[in-house]
Structure formats: structure tokens, C-alpha cells
Write a structure and sequence with these properties.
Elements: H1 2-16, H2 21-30, H3 38-53, H4 55-65, H5 73-88, H6 93-106, H7 113-134, H8 138-142, H9 146-155, H10 160-166, E1 174-177, H11 184-193, E2 198-201, E3 205-208, E4 225-227, H12 234-238, E5 246-249, H13 256-264, E6 269-274, H14 277-290, E7 295-298, E8 313-319, H15 334-337, H16 342-357, E9 361-371, H17 380-389, E10 393-396, E11 407-408, E12 417-424
Helix pairs in contact: 1-2, 1-3, 1-5, 1-6, 3-5, 4-5, 4-7, 5-6, 5-7, 6-7, 9-10, 13-14
The structure holds S-adenosylmethionine.
Amino acid sequence: MQEIQRLATLALAQVLNGRNLDHALTDARKQAKGRLTDHQRASMQDAAYGVLRYRSEIEGVLLQLYPKRHPLPPLDALLMVATYQLLHTRSAHHAVVSHAVETAAEMGSPSSKGFVNGVLRNLLRQKDGLLQQVHETPEGRFSHPGWWIEKVRLQYPERWESLLEAAQQHAPMTLRVNRRHNSRDQYQQRLSQAGMAAIPVGSDGLVLEQPVSVAQLPGFDQGDVSVQDASAQFAAELLALHPKQRVLDACAAPGGKTAHILERGNGLEVWALDQDAGRVRKMEATLSRLKVQAHCQVADASQPDGWWDGVPFDRILLDAPCSGSGVVRRHPDIKWLRRPEDIPALAETQTRLLDALWPLLRRGGRLIYATCSIFAEENRMQADAFLERHPDAKPLPIEDPLFEEGQILPDAMHDGFFYAIFRKV
Ligand SMILES: C[S@@+](CC[C@H](N)C(=O)[O-])C[C@H]1O[C@@H](n2cnc3c(N)ncnc32)[C@H](O)[C@@H]1O
């Protein structure tokens, strides 16, 4: 437990300084003393994710116990980790406290042992009152920044609370079965034979009852299955692909949707672009595991002069860079790393990409615009403004009852996503 607390604290301190959680966890793992077991890795990850999920609540509780930040910032992060473990896990209280005291000493602050011990013991004694007080404010109750809560409240006046609560939940592990290798039913049986229960979602998806490491998934290395949220699996379906079409996936890396397009299509010519070279390498590795091929390029999709050969595409997918406000339950760091001014800046980038790509679509073709956001500026407002600017674009309806005007709101089985289909007339 002590090593878990120490490593989770190192990762968390980085995120509190503006670093992305995945990168911070990778760095922290490198500082482990000896090899971590799977259980230790999972517990460390859970602690870092957990603090970010409940950050305002945890800070609100700690603020009542010691009103000023500790002069040694890692101690603040350590106390947040221990508070998460005391409030939201089944870890034995005495172990959490005694290990946090030792970790404080190890982090270069032996004189802080008494302080850490005192704060955590007071927390245990006064827990109910402290929590009650914190939960009186929306920030403390939902653990999101104030500006974010306000935006969700204004844009979803009837369900803002349930949306914010949904963002606090753990996301399920959802699989996408590669229909070129096996049917969904066949793969579900293979899982069941391996002792894993799963329920179908969408047309190619299975939600696992319990998450597992991908190494445990039958046929993962052979490309029989991938991990992908159920909402993300709509992209390939909404493209309504026909054999031999020329398809552009403009912001494609790390390649989840490109792979799905290739798994579903027949004889397609797929161009998969991304401006991030490292992510394009990941995409190439994914496509090779799945034994499918695309024309992958590192390129700026908003500058077609640099990469387009002038032959129009039948289908374009723009899975645009966005705030990620629909996937906070998977990436709880997002809500703390985003700033309010990021939203109009992202919307501008999305507009630029849409306008640059539209001329590349042939008449009668369709462009799918997608984000993993729930904010209207990136979604409905973006789509409406696009239709205003382009009279040759006609919106096509999405019949699935899960969608409300293109928006999928996060629920137990789905990330928050938005899709718009534009047909060129
Ligand atoms: C939402 S992610 C794409 C996820 C991907 N479609 C998938 O399903 O795995 C957005 C991607 O857009 C890329 N991107 C951002 N601006 C771009 C641009 N101007 N041209 C190409 N790619 C861009 C980012 O590097 C990022 O990989």
C-alpha cells in the first residue's frame, strides 16, 4: 500500500501541475522500486483516477481540516490520495493512515508524520459532518469545476445533475468484435468459455461484466477483437459504406474508427490522416494487429493542398479534436485540465477542419462529423453553423433512439458522443 500511495502521489502531483494523467502514470511507474504486480498497478491507477474523480469533494474535506496548503506540495497530493482511499475504497483505515505517515517521511518530510497522522485521524472522526458541509455546494457534490457545472446546467436544464453524476461513474470495458474474423455471437461464446460474461451493445459490441487486461481476451493478438466504447462504434455504421468506396478518415489516430471501417467494409480505399506522428505509429500497429490496411499519413487535414491527390472521396469521417467532455468518466483529468477558453478555440479548429474537408467530398457522398463532447458549441451549434455556410450540405437524420438531435448522452453503456451526417447535394 505504501508504494501504491507514493506512486499515485507522484502521478497526481504532475496532473495538478497540468500534465495528462496517462503520461503522469507512465512516469510514476518508472519510479517504482522493483517490479509492480498487476494488482499494485491497478490500485495505483485507481488511486490517481479516484482523486481526480472526487477532487473537489476531497479538497473541500481537507480544507476544513487544514485551511492552508502545506508548504511541501507533495504532502497535499499524498493527503488527497489517502483521503480518497478512506472515503471511497474498502482499504483498512489503519493501514491507509499508517502507510501515509510512512510515505510522508519517505517523501523527505519526517517532521510531517505527526501532521499527516493528525489530519487523517481527524478526518475519520469527523467524516460525516465534513462531507455534509462539502456536499452543500455543487462543486463539492459533483466534483467538476464551477464553469463546467454552469455550462452543463445551462445546456441541459432538466438533467444537468444526472449528467454530472454519470461522469463520476466507472466506465465499462466495451469490446468491438472484428466481424471479419468471427461473428459477435461466436466471440461472446469464446468469452463465456474463458469464464467472462458479456452483454451485446450496438451491432458489433460486447460490454464485459468485469474489466480484464487485453492479454486475457481470446484472440486479441490475432486481431479478433478490440477495445472501443459503444458510442464510438457508431461512426463506421453511420458512414453507410458500399464496396470499393474511397474513404477519408481525417483525424484518424490512434485508429479505432479506421479499423472498424476496414473491418466492416469491402474493398475500400481508406486514407487515414493524423497530424501527430506518434499517434500515427500507434494506428499502424493497431491496423497491422487487425490485419487490415489503410493509406496512413502524418498530415494536417485542414491543409489538403499538402496531401490530397484531387480525387474526391465518397465518404469522409471527421472525428474532430474536441474537449472530451463526454468521456470524463474514462479520463477524469480532462475536467481539471480544460479551461473555459478552450471550448471556443476548439470550436474554431473544428470549423476550420469542416470547411477544409467539405470540398473533398463528391456529390452524393456523405461526411460524418463526430466529437466525444456533450457541449453544444462543439456539436449542435457547430452543425447548424456548417449548414448555414454550405447550402450544398443536407443533414440526414439518425434514427437510433439513443440519439437526441445527434447527441448521445453518457449512460452506463455509452460515452457522451455527437454525430452529424451531411450529404452533398
Ligand atoms: C478524437 S481524436 C481521433 C480518434 C480516432 N478517430 C479514433 O477513433 O481512434 C482526434 C485526433 O485529431 C488529430 N488532429 C487534430 N488536429 C488535426 C489536424 N489538423 N489534422 C489531422 N489530425 C488532427 C489529433 O492528433 C487526434 O489524434
